[in-house]
Specification:
Helix 9 links the parallel strand 7 and strand 8. This protein is α/β, with parallel strands linked by helices.
């Protein structure tokens, strides 16, 4: 079996032996080289990559820090959970490349990560993905050597993915690696993304006031729990589409923010640590993406530094813009100022969305300067559709897990009840020490 980095090495690649780290860096020119497993890190190229959004764009004085995942293998940080889940399964004796096919239920980036990780570790990978996801996603999955099954619907049609995964589980050699329930996903973000967010805030010498993440699998939002250890008053903010307001009011519906809003509360979402919910319109996200991608001249004319605006080209995806919008509205809601940073995540780059903007332009016509300015003003609109994470609200979010996970997926209701205890989540966080020891042993 192939064993790549430990959690500690993903958090801090300088812990790798110098020769291995240099070999891994050289392998970046060969994207399919298994040595790129050792580039699964926010710091593979040195410091954590981030950009700070200025008031001229956001309309708020608080700095919004966006850590950027485009430098990961596959161009998204979701490759980290794909690897973390698989390596833990190998240690547990559940997955063996000589015997098993890996199945990755996904709405996008996790499936792309699984399509890359599986073959690099000697497995056949099979991704289950809704048919209405972007064409680029399907192309990337196949390009990494994986097969793909398209299920009915769009981003929010996760039950259809689960149904197909249950069907595939009946084949003995298949192993289902489900990001929505596997705590290795939570552990990766708690230990690695949390550390990256703190490093970015330290780089601008500003305390963190809020961490903002739209839950897809609800792995990324676990970073906030690590940040709270440094800044206990930090606000943990979840974002979801208005068109599918599952956390907001147990709502449902289809939407176009690929990567989030999957019409259920995931098993690994620590809802008891979530302080605020912000709902974002999917049309604003698409239009905001086009503004950041194609509206550089208008942004410069409206006061954004030209070099900074140009650096944003190709940097963001649709869910990145959702996170940015939610961060802006969080800053307005709490009245955060210059000494209070909001940290969020650009989970991927533009490379998987050109077809989405072509569809937007076919629907609305070209984005001229007038349209671009109107879209900029929409970015800066006051917050609406907010829900505070009161005890009663968190209890409802917790209870919603029952219907997906106990009734449909066969989880133990006793474990669901156990998730109400903070120590349940601490125990999940602390598992990495033993995992890292075993990885080092097996790696030799």
């Amino acid at each position: 079996m192939i064993f790549g980095p430990t959690f500690a090495e993903m958090r801090d690649p300088s812990l790798l032996e110098d020769s291995l780290r240099e070999s891994a860096r050289a392998a970046r020119a060969r994207p399919l080289d298994p040595l790129n497993l050792f580039n699964i890190s926010w710091k593979a190229d040195g410091d954590v990559p981030f950009t700070v959004l200025p008031e001229a764009l956001t309309g708020v004085t608080a700095p919004i820090v966006v850590i950027c995942a485009r430098g990961f293998p596959t161009g998204s940080h979701k490759v980290g959970p794909a690897y973390a889940i698989l390596v833990e399964k190998q240690l547990e004796g559940i997955c063996d490349p000589d015997a098993h096919t890996l199945v990755f239920p996904s709405t996008g980036n996790f499936g792309i990560g699984g399509a890359w990780v599986g073959p690099r570790m000697g497995y056949r990978s099979l991704v289950v993905l809704p048919e209405e996801m972007s064409a680029e996603r399907f192309e990337m999955i196949r390009g990494y050597g994986s097969d793909v099954i398209a299920t009915p619907g769009s981003e929010s049609n996760v039950k259809e993915i689960y149904d197909k995964a249950r069907e595939l589980r009946a084949t003995p050699e298949n192993r289902i690696l489900n990001q929505f329930e596997e705590f290795a996903n939570y552990r990766f973000h708690f230990h690695c993304t949390g550390a990256a967010a703190l490093e970015a805030a330290e780089a601008i010498d500003t305390p963190v006031a809020a961490f903002v993440s739209a839950p897809g699998s609800a792995g990324t939002i676990a970073a906030a729990e690590a940040i709270k250890r440094r800044f206990p008053d930090v606000v943990t903010v979840a974002a979801e589409p208005r068109q599918c307001p599952t956390l907001y009011n147990a709502g449902f519906g289809a939407h176009r923010i690929e990567g989030i809003g999957d019409k259920h509360v995931t098993w690994i979402h620590n809802v008891w640590a979530t302080d605020l919910l912000v709902c974002v319109d999917d049309g604003e996200c698409l239009e905001g993406l086009q503004l950041l991608q194609e509206g550089t001249e208008v942004l410069e004319a409206e006061g954004v530094d030209g070099e900074l605006a140009r650096s944003w080209v190709d940097l963001f995806g649709i869910s990145s813009v959702c996170n940015i919008l939610a961060a802006i509205r969080t800053a307005r809601h709490y009245g955060f100022g210059p000494g209070q940073a909001l940290v969020t995540v650009a989970t991927d780059g533009f490379d998987r969305y050109p077809s989405v903007l072509r569809r937007l332009e076919a629907e609305q016509g070209p984005m001229d300067d007038h349209v671009a300015r109107r879209r900029l003003s929409r970015l800066q609109e006051p917050a609406t559709w907010l829900l505070e994470g009161t005890h009663e609200t968190r209890q409802r979010w917790h209870n919603q897990k029952y219907f997906t996970w106990v009734e449909q997926q066969g989880k133990d209701v006793a474990e669901l009840r156990a998730q109400q205890d903070p120590e349940y989540w601490v125990a999940q966080q602390e598992r990495i020490e033993e995992t890292d020891r075993l990885i080092r042993e097996r790696r030799g």
